[in-house]
From TrEMBL:
<keyword id="KW-0238">DNA-binding</keyword>
<keyword id="KW-0805">Transcription regulation</keyword>
<dbReference type="Pfam" id="PF00440">
    <property type="entry name" value="TetR_N"/>
</dbReference>
<dbReference type="InterPro" id="IPR009057">
    <property type="entry name" value="Homeodomain-like_sf"/>
</dbReference>
<protein>
    <submittedName>
        <fullName>TetR/AcrR family transcriptional regulator</fullName>
    </submittedName>
</protein>
<feature type="DNA-binding region" description="H-T-H motif">
    <location>
        <begin position="32"/>
        <end position="51"/>
    </location>
</feature>
<dbReference type="InterPro" id="IPR036271">
    <property type="entry name" value="Tet_transcr_reg_TetR-rel_C_sf"/>
</dbReference>
<dbReference type="InterPro" id="IPR001647">
    <property type="entry name" value="HTH_TetR"/>
</dbReference>
<keyword id="KW-0804">Transcription</keyword>
<feature type="domain" description="HTH tetR-type">
    <location>
        <begin position="9"/>
        <end position="69"/>
    </location>
</feature>
Length: 192
């Protein structure tokens, strides 16, 4: 049975969305095409009609994951427009966010995997990271315009590292301590 162009486009978007979440949960090599397509409710044969390769899908899914992360930052800032950096920090450095394997930060979930992928996956991450840095730079410039770019890099690095460390320890108190220490460091970085 032939699928309409509209349905094919919807199927492609579904596969990208599912892959974005499953890659974050299991890693790029942690799920095969058969299980990935099953998660999208499609057959494996449909995959090759929509993507050149699993690497092509990984690049598309990485872009989608980074877009999703940026959107979540926007939602956090909309809830607290008087302190957008504080809102993003509070959201990002929370135990709830730390525990989100499927929907959490793709940099934390896939950063080391992405470093071993091809240029298209790296380009997707790079574009998303640059967007995060731009957003943080704007927040910092509102509070302290000097050296906003360097401070944005330090803040993003601190936040990503803290969430990563909070995920790899068993002790919930230690995990919370990493997140709290990072939040304190972000405030100090902005104040300097």
């Amino acid at each position: 049975m032939r699928v309409s162009r509209t349905q094919a486009a919807e199927n492609r978007e579904t596969v990208i969305n599912v892959a974005s979440r499953l890659f974050r949960e299991r890693g790029f090599d942690g799920i095969g095409l058969k299980d990935l397509m099953k998660g999208a409710g499609l057959t494996q044969g449909a995959f090759y009609k929509q993507f050149e390769s699993k690497d092509d899908l990984a690049a598309q899914a990485s872009r989608r994951a980074m877009e999703s992360a940026t959107h979540r930052w926007s939602v956090a800032t909309a809830a607290s427009p008087e302190d957008p950096l504080g809102a993003v920090t509070a959201f990002y450095l929370s135990m709830d966010h730390s525990g989100e394997k499927r929907d959490g930060c793709p940099i934390v979930a896939l950063g080391s995997d992405a470093a071993r992928q091809g240029p298209d996956v790296k380009a997707s991450f790079e574009a998303g990271i640059k967007e995060h840095l731009e957003i943080l730079g704007r927040f910092i410039a509102e509070a302290n315009a000097e050296e906003a770019g360097g401070k944005a890099m330090a803040i993003l690095s601190t936040m990503v590292g803290a969430v990563l460390l909070s995920r790899v320890v068993n002790d919930p108190d230690l995990a919370q301590a990493f997140l709290d220490a990072a939040a304190d460091q972000v405030r100090e970085t902005v104040a300097i």
